[in-house]
Amino acid sequence: MDLSSLDPGVGTLPPRARFSSSLGEQSLNGTWRFRLSARLADAPAGIEAEGYDDADWGTIPVPSSWPMHGHGAPAYTNVQYPFPVDPPYVPDENPIGDHRLVFDAEAFLLDGAVLRFDGIDNTADVWLNGELLGSTRGSRLVSEFDVSRLLRATGNVLVVRVAQWSASSYLEDQDMWWLPGIFRDVTLLAKPQGAINDLFVHADYADGSGTLSIDVDSASPATISIPELGVETAPGSSVEIPEVVGWTAEEPKLYRATVRTELETVELAIGFRTVSVVDSTLLINGRPILFKGVNRHEHHPDLGRVVPREVVESELRLMKQHNINAIRTSHYPPHPVLLELADELGFYVIDECDLETHGFGMNKWRRNPVADPAWRPALVERMIKTVQRDKNHPSIVIWSLGNECGTGDNLAAMADAARAIDGSRLIHYEGDWDSSYVDLYSRMYASVDEVKAIGEKTEEQTKDPTVDAHRRSLPFIQCEYIHAMGNGPGGMTEYQELFERYPRLAGGFVWEWLEHGIRQHTDDGVEYYGYGGDFGETVHDGNFVIDGLVSADREPRPGLVDLKKVYEPVGIGIGTDWKTITIANKYAFSDLDHLRLDWAVEDAEGRYAAGVLPAIEVAAADQVTAVLPDEIAAARRDGAVLTVVARLAKDTDWAGEGHEVAWGQAGAVTMISEPIDGTAPVLTQDRTLSVGPARFDATTGRLIALDDVAIDGPRLTLWRSPTDNDNGMDHRVKRRDSSGWTGQRLDKVVGRLVGLTEVDDDHGHGLQVTTRYAAPSYDRHVDVTITWRSDGSRVAAAVRLEPSGDWKQSWARIGLDFVLDGAADRVSWAGHGPGQKYPDTGQAARLGYFESSVTDLQVPYVRPQENGARWAERLTLSGSGRGITIGGDGFAFTARPWSTPALDAAEHTPDLQPDGSTYLTIDHRQHGIGTASCGPGVLPAYHLDPTQLTEADLNFELTFS
Ligand code: GAL
User: Which Pfam families match (predicted)?
Assistant: First the structure.
């Protein structure tokens, strides 16, 4: 094997479109013989010989990633290459996977056939019946070999020697697991003399009419028909069709076309769709659109890079159900199934070439392949393969040259190559901010302020001033933004508001759709997801591979649920008097006929009025205010919430009738309650004090019981178990402390009772407890004074904080910790729910009345961290016996069956075990979440800055009953 060759592939056929023909195909997927060698020198010789005896080899499924089948181990790095940067060479320690298959060929293949590999990671030599067919390059690109001469009816011997590392590994440094193998399908396609070699559909749309021409590369004459449009035409001729329905992600209309020759028929799905740019606005079929997108990698928790079709189908439905309309295939062309489904279900796709050389950045970009002419043929060929395979998909609106390769002329050559084949789509590459050879200005993780400036066209000049005017004429996308790692992402709404405000901003693609967890089991069989470093890697990037909106099993994380709200295509605003409703139709093409508007009113007792609103007609991109039926305002009362939900009026391909698309609310869960006067005296008994039903330890000043419910608290807490976003960008260590909280020792704060006095004033009797909280080694402190009063049944706690002067940076929270018996394992609350909510997340949490077990409040983030806060005005924590109810003027709470130190220490989900207590934290204030795990941190509006605290921050009251 020539592993240092820069050849773009040896012996392979010229790239062409993927289509299926009536001539037939035979899958060679299945069980193959397999043998792994640690290095090429150790690999057996002569395996290509037909008579080679592979009886002592094992077996492996094809397609597969071999480390997922017990051969070697997965390894994760983000930017850094796991081998020395010495291009085009790779280490001698280079796992070699030898694959052999003996098969019979179907008769229809014997007049001529092509052998197609849809993906081999990383490079392979291929032999059929003892003869070398050639060598593949480009893990996620197609390699086809002509096997007409060699294929026979029975006893064919196909041998594929796969090397994990080769020169092309330098081009495939995407942030994901290194997982070698024949991981996509292997197929024989019948291709006798005269068969169609290639097809290229050109189907444009303008103002209701279509223009169609289809190029057919075939020696036999062909005819083309589209019965639904009454079109009969010939290859290469352009037909004007006066009335067509355009293809859009909202209404993905596909027309079935048949291309016929005397030998075969090929069925095509055609979408009429035009992409254009006018005044730096991105238009599809003449209208401005917004990408509500995600970056999608291919990963499966058990299979690695192999993703079964049904999984792809269900994840795309899940995307549609969450108002996502666009996919960037980061950072390589996807399995073809994805594109078929994107055409059918309706997604705008950025199809990205299989290219990333990010690791050269760690070496000041020295010898970066994209800037080295020696690599140009390999790079250009990668782009050509991408465009050729996928050119007939209406869902693809943008070609992307690759990801994070720095800058270099080879990228411009790739752009030229793509344009030479297909000028109908836009060209994208993010890594060169001067954007001279692309059609979009694209950035990743640009801040809200910068995106605003770009929207206003007041951004800074390009580095090279000669290309500035070009870049200023381009639409803008964030090809990656809002990094969905762990708890978060915070601050999504702020970006969406900008996207909706400025025509130049065409939206963005969340990083990323999917966590790449690998399923593992503890010795006692408890399942969890592994991440970088769990597989013996010497070089790795920890849990940075766990940064998705869904788990590796495609379970939605709270970020996805919030994103659905942020991306909702219909804005619903309700007048405070419940008499009017304003509906904003944010679709570019669709009216709202596919939706119905349900309304319902609930209070603490449950739902008591509901109905369906009369249809409100709102054209695409328009807004209408309508009068609500009188019965709605008549249902208004104290503590009631009105919710209007836009639901699918009938079944679609991606969700059933009744599926919720968008919602809006009015009302409040606040109930007016009598103030608590201190009528109950303060009583002393032994070492306890009591005020009404509240009992206190006289030595600590802490509450120890409320009636017969044992409780220990409150203690001030300024700390939270760092989220991935709190940690910042280095994920090899669990707590990197980008927030400064560990440095300030917020996790080690202790209290000292400084005063315990009885008060008697205008509000009656009270017990005043002052505790000084401070961290080891520092003299800064916070004095917390709580005045407890009771009317005999209820208890009020008026809390006042007095911080000393020199606190720094931020606090995670102003919270009060309580510990209760673990039997208290149920919560019900009035506030926002059912999901979690932090100051800059929780867009999906709606007002209402909720209940949950303590267990179900937890979000099982792969690397455990702060999670699960709910926002409430009233909370009841109960178990088998009587519970306690805490009220206040809006607070967040978490309740957990484990302590915060246990959460801090846990590296994987099984590390968290209930310890018999319930840990309750009531937060008066919280610091935001942000997306600093990659990108901007917490926006200023969501900072909890101890130097900027207001009276409202420092004083609050809770009630206990
Ligand atoms: C980007 C990169 C992605 C991913 C992300 C962080 O820079 O393009 O591939 O690494 O950062 O998760």
Answer: Bgal_small_N, Glyco_hydro_2_C, Glyco_hydro_2_N, LacZ_4
Q: Any idea where the domains of the chain sit in the sequence?
A: 25-190, 198-274, 277-564, 569-667, 682-960
- For the segment 462-494, what is each residue's pLDDT rounded down to a tens digit? 999 999 999 999 999 999 999 999 999 999 999
Which superfamily does CATH assign the domain made up of 277-564 to?
A: Glycosidases (3.20.20.80)
Look up residue 197 and give its two tokens. 């070699």
Cβ of 654 below 6 Å from ligand 1: no
Structural fold of domain 198-274? Immunoglobulin-like (2.60.40)
Q: What is the pTM of this model?
A: 0.98
Q: Among this protein's residues, is 480 annotated catalytic?
A: yes
Tens-digit pLDDT profile for residues 665-719? 999 998 777 889 999 999 999 899 999 999 999 999 999 999 999 999 999 999 9
Q: Annotated catalytic, 512?
A: no
Q: Which CATH number fits domain 25-190: 2.40.50.140, 2.60.120.260, 3.30.1300.10, 2.60.40.10?
A: 2.60.120.260
Checking if the pLDDT of 344 tops 70, the result is yes
Q: Tell me the CA distances in angstroms from 350 to 270, 332, 347, 398, one per residue in order.
A: 18, 10, 10, 5
pLDDT at position 125 over 90: yes
- Same topology, domains 198-274 and 569-667? Answer is yes
CA 545 / ligand 1 centre spacing (Å): 9
pLDDT digits (tens, 9 = 90+) for 505-523: 999 999 999 999 999 999 9
CATH superfamily of the 569-667 domain: Immunoglobulins (2.60.40.10)
Atom 10 in ligand 1: residue holding the nearest Cα: 175
Give, for ligand 1, the residue of 480, 482, 531, 546 to mutate: max count of ligand atoms closer than 8 Å to Cβ: 480
Find out whether the beta carbon of 515 lies less than 6 Å from any atom of ligand 1: no
> What's the token pair of residue 256?
């079935």
Q: Is the CB of 445 within 6 Å of ligand 1?
A: no
Q: Which of 25, 313, 315, 404 is catalytic?
A: 404
Residue of 709, 94, 115, 18 lying closest to 340 (CA atoms): 18
Residue 338's pLDDT is what?
98
What span, in angstroms and rounded, lies between the C-alpha atoms of 127 and 136? 12
Q: How far apart are CA 57 and CA 70, in angstroms?
A: 14
- Per-chain mean pLDDT for the chain: 96
* Ligand 1 lined by 411 (C-beta under 6 Å): no
Q: Do residues 662 and 568 lie in contact, with contact meaning Cβ atoms separated by under 8 Å?
A: yes
Residue 144: DSSP 8-state:
E
Report the alpha-carbon distance of residue 370 to residue 413 in Å, rounded.
10
Per-residue pLDDT for 736 more than 90?
A: no
* Atom number in ligand 1 closest to CA 403: 8
Ligand 1 proximity of 513 Cβ (cutoff 6 Å): no
Enter the tokens of residue 189: 């396609």
Q: Which CATH class is domain 682-960?
A: mainly beta
Q: Which of 480, 512, 537, 568 is catalytic?
A: 480
pLDDT of amino acid 674: 85
Please indicate whether residue 511, judged by its CB atom, sits closer than 6 Å to ligand 1. yes
